Amino acid sequence: MTSTTQxxxxxxxxxxxxxxxxxxxxxxxxxxxxxxxxxxxxxxKASTLSPAKIWQIATDPVALSAYDVTFTTSLAASxxxxxAGVIIAWVIVRYEFPGKKxxxxxxxxxxxxxxxxxxxxxxxxxxxxxxxxxxxxxxxxKVAFTRLxxxxxxxxxxxxxxxxxxxxxxxxxxxxxxxxxxxLGASSSQTFWRVVxxxxxxxxxxxxxxxxxxxxxxxxxxVIISSNIPFKDLIAPVLIFQRLEQYDYTGATVIGLVMLLVxxxxxxxxxxxxxxxxxxxx
Length: 282
Fold this sequence. Notes:
The chain is 79% helix and 0% strand. By secondary structure, it is mainly alpha-helical. Helix 4 (61-94) runs parallel beside helix 9 (147-172).
């Protein structure tokens, strides 16, 4: 009896190590099909070209201009949202006012709104005859169908990432710590820079990185609000689509490969920021 009881766990252990559990099998299968396989297919398609050909396509003047518009504008939009998003999160967490729940829910609108609808709405508002575009036109400022319009669209779609990453940290921050700093003679600016900002900084950087990654991959709204002209406001995702329309699958693959490599670098940066934030919290 005793020997039978002792032998049962050993069989279960052998079965446990011989075959992964169901959650592991689902995870491996799902990630392989949804993530790994498309990435491998992209690399396999690009590997049919010589390195010289890949470099020629990747560094084509039109492609370089598209990279510049995409990454520079995305970085500028994410940095602006890094400041505006913190202020908005601060207002939502620290103040009570009528319509607070509506404002809080409206932050997620760029998540829910189809990107094509967002582009159509922004193009309408910021065109020369739109509500805001008409006010800027007398000053010679043209938003729609320019690089500034690309910037506005990226601002719109990346704002929630900063607000939603900073908001939970602000909610957990004890106001007593700020009051203690004030009671010790610290000014408002000293309290912000030395007490409030350090715990928020990892969340702010993570939100900026996520917003930057989202802006780099945006297509639906920008294709409507920009003129999509090379060397003006053409972004890399739209350039890929234009190459596909011209049956230039090789060019689209190489540009897509460049975007993929940049995305992987961004994900590495996000993971490092999150690891830094966890170490700071510990």
